[in-house]
Amino acid sequence: MSNYFEYHNAWGASASFYACCKKKKGVPLVIFLPENKSVMESVKNELELFSDLKILDYPSYTQNPFEEARPLTSIMAARSRTLYNIINEKDYILLLSPYSMLKKIPFKNEFLESIITLEKNKEYPMQKLERELDKLGYIHVEFVTDAGEYTFRGGIADIFAAGYIDPVRIEYFDDEIESIFIYNKDSQTRKKEITGIKILPVSDLLITTEEFKAQLKDGELKEKAESFGKFAGFHWLVPYINKEQSDIFEYLDKYDTVCFMSNIQNSIYGYYDIIESSVQNAIQKESFITAKEAVEKLRRNDIYIISEITDSVESVPLTFASSKTRFSFEKKNLYQSMTNAAETLLALLKENMKIVFSVESEKFAGIFKDFLRDYDIFPKEIKKLSEIEKASISLYRKHISGGFIDKDSGYAVISDMDIFGFTKRKPKPKKKDAFNTKLSDLEEGDYVVHVNHGIGIYQGIKHIAIAGSEGDFLSIMYEGDDLLYVPLHSIGQLQKYIGMQNQQPKLNSLKSSAWQKLKKHAKESAKHIAEDLLRLYAERKARKGYAFIDDGSLIEIFERNFEYTETEDQLSAIYDVYNDMESETPMERLVCGDVGFGKTEVAMRAACKAIACSKQVAVLVPTTILARQHYETFIERFKGLPVNIEFVSRFRTDRHTKEIFNKISDGAVDILIGTHKILSKDLSFKDLGLLIIDEEQRFGVSHKEKIASIKRNVDTLTLSATPIPRTLQLSLSGIRDMSIIETPPENRLPVVVKVIKGLSERIKAIKTELERGGQVFFLHNRVQDIEEAAIEIKRELPLARVDYAHGQMDAKTMEKILSSFYSGEIDVLVATTIIENGINIPNVNTIIINNAARFGLSQLYQLKGRVGRSSRRGYCYLAVDDFARLNSIAQKRLSIIQQLSDLGSGFKIAMYDLQLRGAGNILGAEQSGFVVRVGYELYVAMIEEAVQEMKGEYTNIADTEINSNIAYFIPADYIENPRIRFDFYRRFADIYDINSMGELLKEIEAGYGELPEEVLNLSLIMLIKNFASMLGAEKLMLSKSGASKVTFAKETKLNPALIVKCSQDRKILYRFISEYELSLVADTQEPLKLTADFFQDLYTLSRAD
């Protein structure tokens, strides 16, 4: 008969320690945890320290049951790898949660039989492999980047198998596998050759697409499958194809269970209630085992309940004979002072205790080591508790939940929380291109601008033979259906057209000189703008500001009190700001980063530096709610420091505001946070040194004028998630300094964005969030009927606590409602766009935006950022009455916000917004005509060129025309996807040194096999072209024989002596045909390589000359 035990008084990691102590040899241990990712990670780290066994993690899905979204492939891969390990490992520790345990999965035998085994020198036809991968849930893609993806190219298969941190490449000869190796997905370079691989499923439903289509019984679902195959959410449809499934208990033999919660039964039934509320009909429940089944299966084994509860528990969660025990573990808070910590640690060492200090952050590990060095203690890093041989202090470089002292075992485990008073988490940066606007995004029919020929319509990529050679060309149609074929090596001459909203541009003619005349006028206009920009820039540089030089003591304390580890981008932005502030030139920096990526911390570091130099700080925000949010954030962050902080908004009475203004004038307030009230003429700072502006684009014209007048004399820091393109362009042009924060916080999941219609779908979304214990924003941007919207929700969900708020309310009423929502007393807040900035509540993870088509792209993106700010998945529902009846721009806007669900998409949103609404008055009404006629990008490029010319920094790079009888292109049968070929052409065009070109060729060869001669020729000719362009060459003729002819622009200043030297060094015959024409002959087996070396040498020496 199974036994049941309760153990209380567990502190921090002591629960994991005790679980390992009770572990029976040869009997697997299943640890049942709350549905909390951070708890799961901490416990896993603790078990890895305390146990030498393999720790298995069986994660839950991150989305709601029956939601039409694919599970994260990383989660599916982890679940699959764990099932495989359960089958093959004799002893282990398994982490399980209620949700992960309830989901049905394939029978053990079906799972084992589905595994694909590939071995070197064995046959496994590619056709069969593709069918089996489809059955296992793998997705066919163009480029493999994540677990559960694969692609085939010729005789090469790339597969990112479950359980691997890198993909594998399999090379075939007919049906036989010639080689298998692991490769780097970013560089495409080989890492390690292996002799075989087992490919595990990444789906709970093992079925091919064709079988899935054939076996679906439901008419609507079957129709959807016929159109989309295994569509998103297909893994929930097991009951609809009459497929029997099992559960995780079938995979487990005899085991013991440890539960880190006081009532396991209630937890299981609670999650099953959520599942039941999510189903649309009874058949869907068959995807899960019932809570009753789960509890009965758990009862078969010994169960240990471990919790921090110190009082006896009257109700026993599972009906067994119960044994209750209190631990003798001690809890120590050492962070009251470092001296106190030292005394405690030294006392423990005298008692021969083995001490382990757990800290994940490199920064705080260093602080702890420095602290111990003063006592002649030098800790070593360990991975397992068993590595400690005698009484000493060791370092464990992973996060745990908290420390404990166990005198019986002789171990003391100390966490960073115990020493520093908070938990430091190490970031896992994911770098990405924040401002990526590739031409490969072009669709046929898009308007494009050719620098030399004007506006045309893109017709696609054509492979044609011209003048004895063949290659890939972009086909552009002009007025009168005339076609221009632009060689892909000249891709830099093209830009995607952005003009004015709802205005189609006029096509230019290839037979007219009108384009050249228009360009000349546009350049003159651009020059005037450049003059204005440079005047502003010069004025700022000429103004003498204040150099913020302090002793660093206040900053050091402030930085140490930061509860997280800064991301790489965040640190970079902080140091950018520090450097700016220490200069005598007034700072004007834009910090750009997504919602919740840490911009406010950068601002608070700047504020701390200003205060350390006895200067005052003003924080200007666009909304009352954001003012309050920042006030609370600043108060919490500066807690314990001698810093006085106040805020002004309409929440403050006139009398209170006047008192604050007087304090500001007297210097009694260090930081003032507020809305436009800060710009009041009644306010006079005693010594303002720093102005911080959050979301500057939200302010009106009159406010911006006042901001501009304040900026003249103080350092200015602007924060923005989706910068307006003018702000962005000034930053990119070097007129304004910019720092970018791209790295998302750890554990942040992308927000799921869906378009919904009808009241029933809105109510269902609200109900789903409330049932998982969350709160909901319901955005209704019409004050006149916002109360009716709230009443309607209350009528449909009578048990929900619903209220509404809008900007026309009196301050006290709004403040009371918002406070109630903050504290969780309101479930659903129906509000106008007052919530767009500043409300940051981790428990609010669903937002429904009513009439979403009425909002701009940047505004939708900002609203989406109100949810998903914790480790829980956020959901943004875009509610429209009829998507099909929306105009094309509104449809495109809603489609883009769904597509750009990745974290850190704010830059792309800014550019897409620009494309959708047109450039308009971004550069001013006077210039909008030129924007329409030449396109935004070309016009801005003209401004940048004019700015550089005036600053003496402009380098003219000729667009060298190439004529050659050598074949140089990327064959379509080598890389089939035209977009990928397009992108590689762009990358060839951007390379200016032989080593980088070699790296690109390695990447292509690793991904697509042996390089064709045409690609090798392309790489060398692009190098020659790029160097020749930098040298001022207008024309370049290259021949198979090794002969070449270069024509330089007449303004080119080239030293003939350098040409002679480079020719002699490379043994190339040369002859000056005229002052600007040069003939070369590379008489060798590799004439292109020798010619490329010559031009690189010439370019290098010319720069040094």
Describe this structure in words.
The protein has 1105 residues and is α/β, with parallel strands linked by helices. It folds into seven domains: 4-108 and 245-326, 3-Layer(aba) Sandwich (Rossmann fold); 116-199, Penicillin-binding protein 1b domain (Penicillin-binding protein 1b fold, 2-Layer Sandwich), CATH 3.30.2060; 338-385 and 392-419, Rossmann fold (3-Layer(aba) Sandwich); 442-513 and 930-954, Beta Barrel (Thrombin, subunit H), CATH 2.40.10; 550-737, P-loop containing nucleotide triphosphate hydrolases (Rossmann fold); 752-917, Rossmann fold (3-Layer(aba) Sandwich); 978-1104, Transcription-repair-coupling factor, D7 domain (Aspartate Aminotransferase, domain 1). Helix 25 (811-822) links the parallel strand 35 and strand 36. The protein is globular. The model is unreliable at 309-328, 422-438 and 918-922 (pLDDT under 50). Couples transcription and DNA repair by recognizing RNA polymerase (RNAP) stalled at DNA lesions. Mediates ATP-dependent release of RNAP and its truncated transcript from the DNA, and recruitment of nucleotide excision repair machinery to the damaged site.
Round the mean pLDDT to the nearest integer and report it.
81
Backbone CA Rg: 33 Å
Shape: globular
Largest beta sheet: what is the strand line-up?
3-4-2-13-14-1-15
Low-confidence stretches: 309-328, 422-438, 918-922
Enzyme class: hydrolase
Family: In the C-terminal section; belongs to the helicase family. RecG subfamily. In the N-terminal section; belongs to the UvrB family.
Keywords: ATP-binding, Cytoplasm, DNA damage, DNA repair, DNA-binding, Helicase, Hydrolase, Nucleotide-binding
Subcellular location: Cytoplasm
